[in-house]
Structure formats: structure tokens, C-alpha cells
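Proteins fold reproducibly. Consider a sample protein:
=====
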Amino acid sequence: MLVSTEGIVLRQIPFSDTSLIVKILTRDFGLESFLIKGAKSKKNPKAPLYKPINLLALSFYQRENKSLKQIKEAQLLFAPDAQNFGIYKSAISMFIVELLNHTIPENSSSESEKYDFISYSIAYLRDHPLNPHFYLSFLYQYSVYLGIEIPLTSFNTPLELFTDYSSLGQLNLSKKERNALFHQFEEHYLENLTNYKPLKSIDILNDILH
């Protein structure tokens, strides 16, 4: 059956000299694996579509007995890379995709509300001036969709300001304070998610965000 949906590219896995397996979080079908033939070829005009964190409109053949799906058509909706986002926002987008890879299991089924939050967050990051607290707000709000909501009363910082991106302008945390809060948030993730791994991309954010 041919189906259509939106998707966020999470990662690529080498399959052969010319092909890749691409993991895409789809809005309507959860995490799906796709075999992209010729994806490593520079001559393939579709190859750049499948970079991690790209947002795509997809149509593919949904067959329950096949773990690797075939994409019939893919259209790029947005590429949050350095060219379209700038170095700071693209670093935050890669932080987001690493977090997604650490929190969305292989057998993940459709969770449209979680997908819509992720998609909305990327669009908000695209359409508004950079706020250095954005990644903390994403980490906080995302915990709700994972069912491990970070309790508001556990921190000295007014966490209610992290519940809405539009409130972040009221925060004025130093880099040191942001980093300390990040590690408190991540400790909550580590305590409440079985296979969660610490995020490496935080080091990049610490280097470039003032």
C-alpha cells in the first residue's frame, strides 16, 4: 500500500558501497527504516535529502512483512543546516537530532503529538531570533512527551519559563548556569529512561553559545 506522511531524518547507516539505510521518524507510522539505493553517489540528486534532521514529505510502500521500506517520492520541506540555519542554530538542531536518536527506540510506533512538537520546535527555531536557552527549553518540554516530565519544583530556576519558547526572553542565565541546569535535566533523563546515553553535542553548544 502506498502511503504519504512527513518525516524527520534521524540517522544514516552504511549498507553497501553505494547505498544507505536511513532511519526516519514519520508522523503517521513512527520510526521507519528505508533502503536508499545510490545514496552515496554524488551524481544522485536525491542524496542530499537524507541528511540527519532534514524534514521531508514522503510517499512509500508500507508492507508489514518488510523491515526495509522503499521510498517512491521524497520532497525536502526544510534542511536545518549551516547554510539555511547558520552555525548556531544548526548546532542546536544537531543537539536535537542526537537527543531524538537516544530516546526513540527502533520499534517506535506513531506518536503524532510528539512528532508535531518536534516539527514545531524546528520551525520556531527557524523563524525566531536565536535564544541561547532554546535547547534547554526543548529538553524540558520534550520530557513531557516521553512521559518523564521534569518536575517544576526541583530547581531554583523558574522552570515555568521553559514551558514555552516565547518566554525564553525573560531568562538571563550565564553559560555556567545553563550548563549546570543542562546536567540536572540530563540526570533526570538518565534516571528515568533505560537506554539513554549522555549527549556529546552539548560540548559543541558550550563552545559556541555565549
